[in-house]
Amino acid sequence: MNYLIKLIEVNEGLKLYAPDPALVQQTYKDLLSKDDTILFPFWAQVWPSAHAMASFLLEEKEWIYRKRCLELGAGIGLPSFSIAQYADTIMVSDYALEAVELMEKNIQWLQLENAKALCLDWNNLPEEMQVDTLLLSDINYAPDQFEPVLFMISKFLAQGTIIILATPQRITVTPFAEAIQPFIKRSILKTVQHLTQSVEIRIVVLQQG
Hints:
Elements: E1 5-11, E2 14-19, H1 24-34, H2 48-59, E3 68-72, H3 78-83, E4 89-94, H4 97-110, E5 115-119, E6 133-137, H5 146-158, E7 162-168, H6 174-180, E8 184-194, E9 197-206
Parallel strand pairs: 3-4, 3-6, 4-5, 6-7
Antiparallel strand pairs: 1-2, 7-9, 8-9
């Protein structure tokens, strides 16, 4: 683990091991000075969309209660860990190995017997993977990923999976928003505090038919 971790209260009543927020930037700069190809650890902090999704799921547990759940691009995995006690099973995943290692540590810390950490890339998911509910928190930030993310979403919808997506209000997501519009069954706006700012997060529930 390149980043120093400590136990942090990431949500009311929920403590998780996470990279020390005060040291992430400097640690990244130090790593970058040795390897200029290293990517910024977007997984290493809890983003506003994760807070909004966790709040939504705790308010409307029917979407995850006793269901097989998967979170892709989870980073620290706040939504997954917030609702793990209500789900039948929860798979929390990211493509970054350090994120997955941290998930495994938090699964042990929380003593979750129904949770599993996986290293997954939404561009190359196992064909046999089927879940009841898919959680996607702030995964539509890069326009070059719109096409593969929409392809992934369409595959899960075709299987009958309920998809819950949380996203900030961004101009760049307009084509993405238009593509998922026909599948939106529920849509709400949540406001969360991030550092010193209030951030509006759109939560949508997607379902086929």
